[in-house]
Amino acid sequence: MDTCDLFSSCRKGDVGRVRLPRCPPSLPQPGGQPATTSSQRRPPLSQTPSAQILSLSGPGACSLTPGSPHFHTPSVLVPLPQCLSYSGPRSSALTWGRLPLPLLQVSSRSGTVLTWALTSPPRYLLEQRDVEVNVRDKWDSTPLYYACLCGHEELVRYLLANGARCEANTFDGERCLYGALSDAIRRALRDYKQVPASCRRRDPYSSFLLRLLEQGLHSDVVFSVHGRSFQAHRCILGARSTYFANMLDTKWKGKSVVVLRHPLVNPVAFGALLQYLYTGSLDVGVEHISDCERLAKQCRLWDLLGDLEAKLASKPGPCVKVLTVEPPPADPRLREDLALLADCALPPELRGDLGELPFPCNGLNSFPDICFRVDGYSFLCHKAFFCSRSDYFRALLEDHFQESQEPEASGGLPAVTLQGVSAEVFTHVLYYVYSDHTELLPEAAYDVLAVADMYLLPGLKQLCGRSLAQLLDEDSVVGVWRVAKLFRLARLEDQCTEYMAKVIEKLVEQEDFVEAVREEAAAVAARQETDSIPLVDDIRFHVGSAVQTRSATEQAQQRLQALEHLLVAIGLDC
């Protein structure tokens, strides 16, 4: 459902802005009675005539229920120019239209500004719901393509900044360029400093791997191909390719520099091959495709070979100069291969938990360069992963005074003892660092969350948040919400308030919820009598956003009334 909302937002959505006078004039209602002014107290929602609406025209319009908690002055059906100045979509008519109740936000200090989105806003879907920005529909179209096609320039820029893929001379890039509705969007696509979507903030794991490849952090081998040098990591090459694992243990064993002089080894193709091994994707000029196929056969990378042949079979157009190979969405191959390094890092005493099958890293030399001692167990790990994934471990392991390191462990590796963490919890950290994933039960999520916060691993905190979301019920939702606030887990906090909106009639009877509302009100600096409370606003938002039918409207009114009665009972009017 969230993915469909994102496509809908890109096809129909935009952002508009309305400014209301500080004291709106009295305007005639449909029945001829003057409108209530802002100085009068807002009537209860149940007493507001449902026929009265304030409306704006434009695509994707939704209704605004009068007396909404987000709208402090009761709304009436009025001609727009009489009280509003509107700046929004170029194609919108300034006559009549509608404002969506769930998406309204009001500055309660001034009471003058309403901001809305005409459908579910992409910012909410991307940042709160974690929808993939490059998701494709059944027509192989992306949100960026629809935004270009429909002429939403601001949305195009937002999607580009958040990882939408649109490289020049590629299929997606050319499609967006030729489908753009306006010259301004075409200029935005051309002028934008394009980088692969995999290395932007929407995918920090791919960004980390690409940084390892490009910067060579803690690399332990260099390949020299016809005068061009490539820094690499033995552990990654061995985990990703049986050919490289075999060569690094035999012909290239002990060599810090490997020279490749064969005339058929093209340095551009070799660089593209390393990109595939590190990131699972590949960008190469069409003139080097045959060289890449030759290397893929030599290195027994059959998946890459099949992807290249499939791309060539699709006959890219004459304008396409760069061929891009990407793994399918949620493809587990890269993470599963690198998870082998976590398997190898586990102490032998803890490997029995992996099951009855033969241990998967038997025979694989992982080339560790650091030993972590946790609860008396030794984890043989790699600085490249821990230093690049965590600022905590970077400061710990790159200490120039070597104060953190202890006498060498078995095998001559430097050793570091970690305090305040159990071996079980560190195992979750280990698998997250290597594969960006760990099997996490909700019962263990609290302990892992605290350690993830200490080790500065925001991605692991998000995984813990997803696990804690499974625990939500009437008794635990307030406690989980407090945890989400404490550790700044925006998505989990939003899930908690969404659940609160569903059970608000029961929550208002619980003392911990009442206390949470009081704490939120007290946290607003210099709060005035009618200033809003963030927790209350979020609950109201979700109550309103769930309204789809008349029966749902009645249920939403009952929920809002229960919340209003609580606020009145504890002396908070907002």
TrEMBL record:
Entry-linked CDD domains: BACK_ABTB1_BPOZ, BTB1_POZ_ABTB1_BPOZ1, BTB2_POZ_ABTB1_BPOZ1
InterPro entries: ABTB1, Ankyrin_rpt, Ankyrin_rpt-contain_sf, BTB/POZ_dom, SKP1/BTB/POZ_sf
UniProt repeat feature ANK, residue ranges: 139-171
GO terms for cellular component: cytoplasm; ubiquitin ligase complex
Composition-biased stretches (Polar residues): 34-50
Example GO molecular function: translation elongation factor activity
Official protein name in the record: Ankyrin repeat and BTB/POZ domain-containing protein 1
